[in-house]
Automatic annotation (TrEMBL):
UniProt record, GO biological process: glutamate biosynthetic process
Keyword Cell cycle: no
SUPFAM superfamilies: alpha-helical ferredoxin (SSF46548), Nucleotide-binding domain (SSF51971)
4Fe-4S ferredoxin-type domain location: 38-69
Protein name in UniProt: Oxidoreductase
Taxonomic lineage of the native organism: Bacteria, Bacillati, Actinomycetota, Actinomycetes, Kitasatosporales
Keyword annotations of the record: Amino-acid biosynthesis, Glutamate biosynthesis, Iron, Iron-sulfur, Metal-binding, Oxidoreductase
A Pfam family annotated for this UniProt entry: Fer4_20
Pathway membership, UniProt: Amino-acid biosynthesis
Taxonomic superkingdom: Bacteria
GO molecular function: iron-sulfur cluster binding; metal ion binding; oxidoreductase activity, acting on the CH-NH2 group of donors, NAD or NADP as acceptor
Length: 495
């Protein structure tokens, strides 16, 4: 603890965002370049190095947060990087994309603003890359064992890197033409520029991990054939089966899933296409769903030049303070948060009918109506109570030329044949069934990440990747030195 009074003398200061009018004209990250380093050592000083650091428990990775806070406060970047990478393969991803449940568990947050843990993490990761503190770590020797990892999202990449580093020969199979899963085509560049991903992939290639893109297991290569070629298989395909909205008018042109819309915008940024076929320019956009994917659609539509953008959330508007009765510290509370995309919508007044920023709360979609050509033109909604029951007399319509459904995901997509070809059992929720050690009902086949857990946070995805790697290593060799931060049935802290 470098400054025992830091939490009393230094107020919380977060990484500044670029002005709204500037950042909505490009796809660069929203934060001021270089804006962290001048403030981050004093922010790390606010950590109390408390005797029981609940931030450890709030983060499934078990990040050694007080340790690297202390090291950053002393500007010992090499040691801070070592402690950070001891528990997290990809801190530059989580430092940008994670909603930071660790900060909700910060002891200081009981009665003060939490330590800016996420910003400290990002500063360490970026400084480590700048100073060459994250060189490739190829194994000293090979074990002669082979592993196929299906899926190159954060779970698959974490599992592959861990297994490669202990000497197994690992090949990652990815259905898309580029690696990264949702980090590549689901997450907009303004939240994480893709050079962060490319840099880590190059590190993995240098360590010996092999990558096979544009390969759908179950179609381009048979799942049973793949299993026969490798000593173990890890399924980390994610939960990509999106939830539908079964209301009248769903069949109208212009009503699309969020994950049909976001990848096209990302492909524009990658230079694959000049203009997205679903570009929001000049259109009235309504996003159904109040989560992070909806916010990603919001920021994307604003940058594409939408005439208006409104986001519907079926839940009531949360308060700005934690409800200690229903969501006591150190659980992650549902409070009103202003993401970069919502800040942009608020400043630019993209949704005149919204309750706040671009959001309409306690709003349920009734139906879509269109014109004579079958194009959606209006979304009809109704206000609902806490039990989602319609409130009489509250029905209204919003103009809608483009409707984006951001309702979450139910489990892995079965259309590629992977699940059926291997004969994998499913859990009641539609996710892959697994037991202790991440094992499926098929010997040598393991399931990890959202495909088995259900949609979750990036920190849980990486934690699952690290844990399943330890399980696979034990299966192949009889023991493992790899860390296993969580079990397959662990869940976030809750009341």
């Amino acid at each position: 603890m470098a400054d025992p009074k830091g939490f009393m003398t230094t107020p919380r200061q977060e990484w500044s965002r670029r002005p709204v009018e500037e950042r909505v004209r490009d796809w660069d990250e929203v934060y001021v370049p270089g804006g962290l380093l001048p403030i981050i050592s004093k922010q790390a000083d606010r950590c109390m190095d408390c005797g029981v650091p609940f931030c450890h428990q709030a983060c499934p990775l078990g990040n050694l947060i007080p340790e690297w806070n202390d090291l950053v406060s002393r500007e010992d970047w090499r040691a801070a990087s070592d402690r950070l990478h001891a528990t997290n393969n990809f801190p530059e991803f989580t430092g940008r994309l994670c909603p930071a449940p660790c900060e909700a568990g910060c002891v200081l947050a009981i009665n003060q603003p939490a330590v800016t843990i996420k910003n400290v993490e990002c500063a360490i990761a970026d400084r480590a890359w700048e100073e060459g503190l994250t060189p490739p770590r190829p194994p000293d020797r090979l074990t002669g064992r082979t592993v196929a990892v299906i899926g190159s999202g954060p779970t698959g990449l974490a599992a592959a890197q861990q297994l490669t580093r202990v000497g197994h020969t690992v090949a990652v199979y990815e259905k898309d033409d580029r690696l990264g899963g949702l980090m590549r085509y689901g997450i907009p560049a303004f939240k994480m520029e893709k050079h962060h991903l490319e840099r880590r992939l190059e590190q993995m290639r240098a360590e010996g991990t092999k990558f096979r893109t544009s390969t759908v297991v179950g179609r381009d290569v048979g799942a049973a054939e793949l299993r026969s070629r490798y000593d173990a298989v890890v399924i980390a395909t994610g939960a990509t089966a999106w939830r539908e909205l079964d209301v009248p008018g769903r069949e109208l042109a212009g009503v699309h899933q969020a994950m049909e819309y976001l990848p096209l915008a990302n492909r524009v940024c990658e230079g694959d296409i000049a203009v997205s076929p679903l570009c929001a320019a000049g259109r009235h956009v309504v996003i159904v769903g109040g989560g992070d994917t909806g916010a990603d659609c919001l920021g994307t539509a604003v940058r594409e030049g939408a005439a208006s953008v409104t986001q519907l959330d079926i839940y009531a508007q949360p308060g700005t303070e934690r409800d200690e009765d229903t969501e006591p510290w150190p659980t992650y509370p549902k409070i009103y948060r202003l993401s970069a995309a919502h800040e942009e919508a608020e400043v630019l007044h993209t949704a005149p009918a919204a309750d706040v920023d671009a959001r309409m709360f306690a709003a349920s979609t009734l139906r879509f109506t269109g014109d004579g050509d079958g194009q959606v033109r209006e979304l009809h909604l109704v206000e609902v109570d806490a039990e989602r029951r319609p409130l009489p007399g509250t029905e209204r319509a919003l103009p809608a030329d483009l409707v984006l459904l951001a309702l979450g995901f139910s489990g892995p997509d079965r259309r590629d044949g992977l699940i059926d070809q291997l004969g994998l059992d499913l859990a009641p929720r539609g996710t892959l069934a697994r037991g202790v050690g991440y094992v499926t009902n098929v010997p040598g086949v393991f399931a990890a990440g959202d495909a088995a857990r259900g949609q979750s946070l990036i920190v849980w995805a990486i934690a699952e990747g690290r844990a399943v790697a330890a399980a696979v290593d034990h299966y192949l060799t009889g023991s493992s030195r790899l860390p296993s931060p969580i079990g397959p049935h662990d869940r976030p802290m809750a009341v």
